[in-house]
Design goal:
This protein is an alpha/beta fold and 342 residues long. The protein has ten helices and 14 strands. The model has no long low-confidence stretch (mean pLDDT 94).
Length: 342
């Protein structure tokens, strides 16, 4: 299977390393507009390098695309790929508008093409275990949750340039990071139907928000608080932590492990009362090639598996991305209506 990498930044290089190790895949091209980056990569990768996506399509015949360019460019790239009958894996948030992601998803479905979005937490073993335990009633009925994501992405005022500092291009902490937290909440609890009390706060940025907070409300009556900050110098690496309060205990989980507190012993789960900790090393299933985390390999192996066998169920499609974008649009609208942009 011939796969073209479109965008060779940090995520593009990660995807290149992983998919290049797949025994059934050949990376047939890499598209990267940056001349310095293209020059350096050209010395180390076997695939031909292109500065322009259209030029690559004229020279190569890929079966699928791995798209890791800035979000505002995704619609044009995915539409052209769709017109040429190419399967597509695209980095989150897929597009910058729910209507575009929904339209693309429907067209890919109609064309019989596989589409997947890079919400990598859905392939993390710990979050899968969390979802299984919650569904099984490990802490009884979940009555409340909070999801928090922190990073040190923007920690100075010199942030006036680059696509991440323009919302129209897909910048700001909501598109960049809160998308992961919202999508993960939907994976564990189901899709929120509405939001409330949304606030967008600037710390160092001048045109986009550095902090977003809101309450996610579900049709079942469950609600959770979301807090995401990419200007926290106290953290080393981005981490998404979800804390759940239930009628029979508490569950705290991130991509590295989970902590379970039971108010009383459970024979069904073979747990004593009190705290029990499980680490990713106990829960992880092996992958053929490791870069950054098992989940990064697992999501791309899943993409290839779905192309090979259409009976493999989707874990994260453009439909899921459209649902996440719809929640984000509610947050923007809610914050704007209450004038909570500071």
């Amino acid at each position: 299977m011939n796969v073209a990498i479109v965008g060779a930044g940090r995520m593009g290089l990660t995807h290149y390393a992983i998919i290049n190790a797949h025994p059934d895949v050949r990376v047939c091209a890499v598209v990267e507009p940056s001349l310095p980056l293209r020059t350096v990569l050209g010395k180390h990768v076997e695939a031909p390098m292109f500065a322009d996506f259209t030029a690559m399509l004229k020279a190569c015949e890929p079966d699928a695309l791995l798209v890791s360019t800035p979000p505002a460019s995704h619609v044009a790239i995915l539409t052209e790929g769709l017109n040429r009958g190419l399967h597509a894996f695209v980095e989150k948030p897929c597009t910058t508008a729910a209507v575009d992601a929904r339209r693309l998803a429907e067209r890919y479905d109609t064309g019989g093409l596989i589409h997947q979005v890079g919400y990598v937490n859905r392939f993390n073993d710990v979050f899968h275990e969390c979802r299984r335990l919650v569904a099984g009633g490990i802490i009884g009925k979940v009555v409340r949750y909070k999801t928090e994501m922190l990073s040190r992405t923007v920690t100075s005022g010199n942030t006036s340039s680059g696509w991440r500092q323009t919302r129209q291009a897909g910048g700001g902490v909501t598109y960049e990071m809160a998308t992961h937290a919202i999508n993960l909440a939907a994976f564990i609890f189901g899709l929120p139907s509405r939001v409330g009390g949304s606030q967008l706060t600037k710390v160092f940025s001048t045109a986009v928000e550095d902090i977003v907070s809101t309450t996610l409300m579900h049709p079942s009556g469950l609600s959770g608080s979301l807090f995401v900050n990419w200007s926290d110098e106290s953290v080393r690496k981005p981490t998404n932590t979800v804390e759940l309060l239930g009628t029979e205990g508490k569950l705290i989980v991130n991509q590295h492990g989970l902590q379970i507190y039971r108010t009383h012993a459970s024979e069904a789960f073979r747990l004593a009362a009190g705290w029990t900790t499980k680490y990713i090393t106990e829960l992880a299933t092996p992958v053929p090639f490791y870069v950054r985390g098992n989940e990064y390999t697992r999501q791309l192996w899943h993409f290839i598996a779905r192309i090979r066998d259409r009976s493999v169920p989707s874990v994260c499609s453009m439909h899921d991305a459209a649902d996440t974008l719809a929640v984000i649009e509610q947050i923007f609208s809610d914050a704007s209506a209450s004038d909570d942009i500071t």
